[in-house]
Here is the input.
Amino acid sequence: MSILFFNPLATKHNPRIPNSILQIAASIEGRYDWRFVDGNIDQEPWDKIENYLANNNIKYFSCTVMPGPQLRQAIPISKKIRQLYPNIKIIWGGYFPSNHSIVVLDSGFVDVIVNGMGDKSFPKLIDAMETNSLFDGIPNLIYKKDNILFTTKKDEIYNLDELPKLPYEKLNNFYPIGRYLAKTYLGTKTIAYHSSFGCPFTCSFCAVVPIYNARWKGKSAEAIFQDILYLKNRFDGNAIEFHDNNFFVSEKRVIEFSKLVKDHNIVWWGEGRIDTIDKYKDETLFLMKESGCKMIFFGAETGNDKLLKKMDKGGIQTREQIKSFAARLKKLILFRNTPLFLAFHPIKKRKYLKQF
Here is the structure.
């Protein structure tokens, strides 16, 4: 019996390491056989999917789905599997099904939704399906039974250091990892990495809020460093994109990571909040830059205080703070004579402030 994981097309440029798929695959590694198809690399993923379905005793099709582009492949391929292979169970995870569970389950081609983290629920779900057991004791699931919607209890974010290592080597058997290490502003072989889950803020426009309920937990700086060092030494990665919802929640963790990575010639960036990083000490900001932090992506959203209040960002950000924070960074960076690339992303239009 095999499980087929699918990563639908999200971008036609620079495919990234499929961390969400690897996170779940790690939970069943050594227990169940699994295969993987990436729509970001295969131009016609259905051909490879159908080959697996026809020749590898696939019983479960598991698909990660973000809102937007990934729906263009996730929907027609899931529908086709339901039509051609009606006995295969279809499982969706990711932001879209977690936040829009009713429409997904009413579609008729999705059997179960993994609601948020699936590190513990996914292997238990497969166990239950294999033994025809009930799902009600399994956390982080949404499903329908007798046309009634059931949502099981939600686990707190797990201790990430205790979870299994991501199966990079097995991914490398399906697709050479070098194809995921793209040339970017940061470096010639950029690693996509996820070091934390959730966010302690409750922005009204954010898909993270209903999934993690204003909770945040991250890997330790040492665990991040060891993973990055492995990817650098094994696959020649020389830059890191941290795709955390909020990488900079813990100043202590940022300091520890910056000290560890400082002498390893690795450039990195992450996303953060202005009202969080503005609380950082000057020495922390200097250390970040010296350790290879070349870019920070901030959520400015708008310079209108009334709109900021309506957005309910859950913090203290104001128009004046946005301006004063940019001025503070400019002063600090010029003092150390080291240019920094900052990206402030308003909701409607992105503006880039270069070469402070």
